[in-house]
Amino acid sequence: MLPDDIAVPEHLKEVVSMKGDFAEDKAASRFDAPKTVRVSASVPATGGGQLNFHFVNYNRDEPAKPKSPGAGIQDEKPIATPVIACDVRLPQGFRQPRVTVFTPESSKPTPIAAKFAEGRLRFEVPSFLVYSVVEVQSDQK
Known about the structure:
This protein is mainly β. Helices cover 6% and strands 34% of the residues. It has a five-stranded antiparallel sheet with strand order 2-3-9-5-6, with no helix packed on it. Strands 1-4-8-7 form a four-stranded antiparallel sheet, with no helix packed on it. The chain has two helices and nine strands, in the order H-H-E-E-E-E-E-E-E-E-E.
């Protein structure tokens, strides 16, 4: 693991490419997101039956002056993501999962449609500006 802000071309040669062997792993979860979006998953402290997927979008209009941090929040100009297609392998025991998305742009959680078959969950994350969380809840066996 290496933070993006200190990555240099020599480091990036070692980055795993989605076009390599990993792309052939049909069991792996896949997120069709731009390279400016980072995806991570977590299991809440409440235990099994729930997964959270965190999507962070780093795409923005950069300040006019190179290397300028800008003047603060008023210069933050995020560029919205496209819809992100997700194909997730769920842990054993998940059944009839319900999918809800949370973003700062919306005052309410939004249920989203999902297809569940053979241990895989397919859904689309709606466009967002900076941050989105997808909560997957299941009635576990």
